[in-house]
Each structure stands twice: as C-alpha cells, then as structure tokens.
Diaminopimelate epimerase
Amino acid sequence: MKFTKMHGAGNDYVYVNCFDESLPTDIPALAQQVSDRHKGIGSDGLILICPSEVGHARMRMFNADGSESEMCGNGVRCVAKYVYDHGIAKEEELKIETGNGVLTLQCNLSGTKVESVRVNMGKPILTSADIPTLLPGDPPVKAPLNVGGKRLEVTCVSMGNPHCITFVGELSDAWVHGIGPLIESHEMFPNRVNAEFIQIVSPSEIIMRVWERGSGETQACGTGACASAVAGVLAGITERKVLCHLPGGDLELEWSDSDEVFMTGPAVEVFEGVWPE
Ligand SMILES: N[C@H](CCC[C@H](N)C(=O)O)C(=O)O
C-alpha cells in the first residue's frame, strides 16, 4: 500500500489514495498500526481519499485509536491539496464529500502546487441532541459541567463532529492532559467528544490547545478551531472573524453572516512511502 504523509498546521495523518490502492478489510486496525509513533509510520490517524459520485473525492478519517470520525478540518485541506497536486482534478475549486456533507474548497497555489486552502465548513450544528450532548441548551453555552472535582463552564458545537470548548485563563498541560481525557469520555457526551481549551488574546485572536477524541493531544484541530470560533461568538467573547494560534500553526476563521464557517490554513506534503515495507 502506497501512502503519503501530510500535515495541516502540524495535525498529521497518513493519507492513502484509494483511487489506486486497495486496503485490508480491518481499517480500524490499519489506522492503529500506521499511527503508532514508535512502531508505525507515526501520525494522528489515517485518512482515505476515495472516489465520490457527488464530488471530486470523498474523505474518510480514522483516529489513532481506530475510531472513525465524521469530519476533519485539517485533513480535508490536505485531501484538496492531494487531489489537485496529484492530478485527480484540475479545478482550483474542489468539492470533497465528507461525513458532514459535500464541502467546497478553494485552493491557493504557490507555483503549480497548493499551499493553503480556504474551506467552506458549512453551518455549525447547535442543537444538543445533534451535537450530541446531554447538556441542556441549544446549544449549551457556558453550561456547568463537573469534571475532575472542578465545575467548568463549557460551550458545545458540532462541525459534523462534536466539540466541547472551555475558555481558560491560561493554557496548561493540566487542562489538556488532566481535564481533556475526562471531558472526552464524560457521560454527558454519548459519542465521546473533542475537548478544546481556549485562551483569549483579544476579541479577534485566540490561542487553542486540543485533546482530540481518539487521538489525544494534537498540534491542531481544524473543526475544533471552527467550533471554538463559533463558541466565542455564542459566549459573547470574540468577534465573528478570529485568528487562532495552535501549537502547530495558525488558522483563520470566520463565522459568516450566511451562518457558514470559513477556515483558511496550510496543507503540506511531507513524504511518500510504502506500508508495510
Ligand atoms: N484534527 C481534526 C479533527 C479530528 C476529530 C476527531 N478526533 C474526532 O473524533 O472527531 C480536524 O482538523 O478537524
């Protein structure tokens, strides 16, 4: 199986071109094996670039623990880069099918290759039953959540996949590694949840760290950054356009008047290889 290692703001996945490659039947096991940073290729998960009847390609995304997610913001930018740079499509505006519908992506070129991508991530999902969370409110905004002996105020948003956002005074490992896993598996989130921690710099600038469902701390999370931008507006903290600093890079976000969230960020190809050797 040929693969390509790519990252978006340091959120790295093993990508497989399923137009050409056939996969083993146990894809969750494959995702676990390739993601292993000591005994595998090393990544936050596995992303399949598949043929689609409604777009230029279809993305399927598996976390490092083998669980499948509906959506991946950094991943869908890299899928667009792969599809354009490898000649699967020639258009700079691409349609990619995801678990959150068919998204429209605008590729920004440097020479003949894609350098960054602007994605219309669609409308945020703000009903608690659809996020899904058992917390009250559509959506829950600054809702009380008891975690690890603390009473947090959390805001929940789905971008096709579920996110739980906590605005903190100062980011720390205690938040991300101590509280993150407890939020991920909290009984209020029947499908588990991605946990974002946000430090506010100004109404138009935030710093984010994330504990991802199924992958642990990653250097960036595109859907999480979008969800956090929406949460900041809902909580009355930030403006509709924000710059988000993540450990692996920056993402630009805008919750537009049309209710759609736009995300712009980098997409990078690192190397190609064959698995197993
Ligand atoms: N890093 C990804 C999100 C992965 C979400 C995944 N951990 C889930 O289970 O939903 C992103 O850029 O949007």
In short: The mean pLDDT is 98.
